[in-house]
Amino acid sequence: MEMRASKRIKRKLKHPISFLLMLLIVVSSFSNITLANSTNKEDAEMSKNTPKRPFPQHVTYTEGTIKPNHVTQEEMDATVARLYDEWKERYLKQNPYDKDQYYIFYNHNGESTNDPREAITVSEAHGYGMVITALMAGHDPDAKKYFDGLYRYFRAHPSEINPQLMAWQQAIINDEIVDVNGVDSALDGDMDIAYSLLLADKQWGSDGEIDYLKQGKLVIDAIMESEIHQTDYYLKLADWASDDDDYYGIATRPSDFMLQHLQAFKMASGDTRWDKVIDKTYNIINDVFAEYSPNTGLLPDFLLKDKDSGKFKPADPWFLESSRDGDYYWNSSRVPWRITSDYLVTGDDRAKAQLSKLNSWIRQITGNNPANIKRGYKLDGTQISNNAGDAAFSAPFTVSAMMDDVNQQWLNDLWDYNVSKETAKGAYFANNIRMLSMIIVSGNWWSPTEVSLDYLNNLLENYITTGDVNGPLTNQLTNSLKQAEHQYVKGHQKQATKSMEDFIKHISNKALQKHITPDAKRVLIENAGALIQLWTD
Fold this sequence. Notes:
The chain is mainly alpha-helical. It has 17 helices and eight strands. α2 (73-91) runs antiparallel to α13 and α15 packs antiparallel against α16.
């Protein structure tokens, strides 16, 4: 009896012990699942914040271009990183009234010369900041946080004319950041903002809180709608300059000639009208160079379309900003950087003659001494001021010097001269232009868009829709692209290249020229050739 009782007691105890063991296993499993889910979420979040193209990138630019050769790549990277840290400390500011927003403070040295003197930023500065933070991700672990904060500030200050664009100036008045001096846009800020969103898409992807690619396309489309002349396809000043305005509507600004941006806009949007804008911009550059600055390559701050000839000419004094509106002055100091970057990245050489003349002229007039670069010139090369030493004028020439190895020593000297300047003593304009220029010169400027089969397919479809490609050529080109894609997906790059070569042969077939417009022919051959080069490198 005692034995049975003992056994009964033991049997009764086995059940709660088993239950407890099972409970522990379940709780442990649940904890592990919860921990795994938490870890997966953290990993996913970290993945979203991890840059895919972290600084430094060491991009290979167009064949024949150069970089400084008296310092190592590591030394150039370290210099750019130092300049960025100094730039961020001085200019990147958190919105005191909304901690989720950041802006670029531009008024340390009284840059706001017009009322209100309390101005804190302009869209130009904001665009610079968004491009810089996107490119410097990897060096700066908080780059995405800052970029997103800059994006939120941009969206909090829309233009009243086209809300996809940014109101050009803000100030702190009565403890509030408000838009001032007209709630409308400025083209340069909008272009850099759109470009920065394409960079952000490639840097962090667009599946997070902000769909960078979608937002970038919205801004690109808004620029086309409101800041491009709808029949002549030149870059206007802003969304407030209407096409039918026979004063401001006929103006353009060479420092806005961001041709590589335009190439990226075309590829991201698939809108072939950007080709017209690119062609028009290059035509303006070369017309003005031939007519007004054949001995210098200089372009003025502003250009106006002549009503009789239809060509552009330098603006009159006080057209918009100063008595120097028709000269190479503060606005156009950026031209050597803006135009050259397209040649470096895309290899488009349509402005090469103008830039080459510009380089040879500035070297000659300064005696190859960067310290002699003055603050402005007339288009014939006559200096406007005796003042020199401003990085806003010298840094962009560092970029243009990269075009040719005949400039090697000049480039080396420009690098040393510009990076030696103290950020804390410089003005906003000079420091921001130098920052962007040195990123390019160090080989760390990369394009957010590149030629792809998808892009070429979309391009062909657009041309077929518009009738620029028609007749029997339609099926020939479509089939060649399908074959190229089929072979490329299978990993057969040689066969894919052969199909792409057939694509070009069809376009060049003399018997079929009536079925394709000259512009469509040129653009399709350029892009097909770029793909072939990409596959065979």
